[in-house]
């Protein structure tokens, strides 16, 4: 069972994980986080969950578009040269 | 424009500005799927997403003369789309969670994450996670949801996201990190 209250050290590391995942730290800062993750199963689990969430977000499915969509758009755009100036 | 040749966005824009109205159809074909999906994940209603996307393309056509060619056309298009979707949500002022409706609509694509390497149980778990993620996403404030979609669906860089939303890069990063934390908290029971 997970400890409901993480230590201050874990709280700090957890708050840094989003930036760590984005490689937003110096190599030294990243190394500190990496070392903590190697030693702390609870933070490692949180890191794995966050990575999984990001993978799921990256795989958000595209919705289908009706074959008539383009024609519908083209029917609504004006024929005249409206507003097109450089 | 010659139908067989593949034109860049800049070439198509140039042609439209010179009066080739039909050339705009190439841009619609190129971006319709991404745009409809982006707006769908913003408003969580398929019919509205189609209607709003159509309006975005019409708006883009009408203001093409003001498009600044130093930016990617797609960045500009997503900016119009994001503003339009957020305006729409503001007008509605109602929660937009309708995953259930979507699941019951036979015309919409299956939400499952397909992978040849997953066994049926893993594939099922992934599908459930995706449904939960979409529910959690729909509960985010629209501006946070927009950033998540720009980053993870449209795969935009932080620089492009800043241009699209008009926020400084630092704010974009802070908000997207916060948005992910909110999603993690909301998905706690599911993990």
Summarize the structure in words.
The complex is a heterodimer of chains A (86) and B (191). Chain A is an all-alpha fold and 86 residues long. Chain A has a domain at 8-62. In chain A, 62% of the residues lie in helices and 0% in strands. Chain A has helices at residues 8-21, 27-39, 41-58, 69-76. In chain A, helix 2 packs across helix 3. Chain A is elongated and about 65 Å long. By secondary structure, chain B is mainly α. Chain B has two domains: 1-95, Orthogonal Bundle (Rna Polymerase Sigma Factor, Chain: A), CATH 1.10.1740; 110-191, Winged helix-like DNA-binding domain superfamily/Winged helix DNA-binding domain (Arc Repressor Mutant, subunit A), CATH 1.10.10. Helix content of chain B is 67%, strand content 0%. Chain B has nine helices and no strands. Chain B starts with 8 loop residues before the first helix and ends in a 5-residue tail after the last helix. At the A-B interface, helix 3 and helix 4 of A face helix 2, helix 3, helix 6, helix 7 and helix 9 of B.
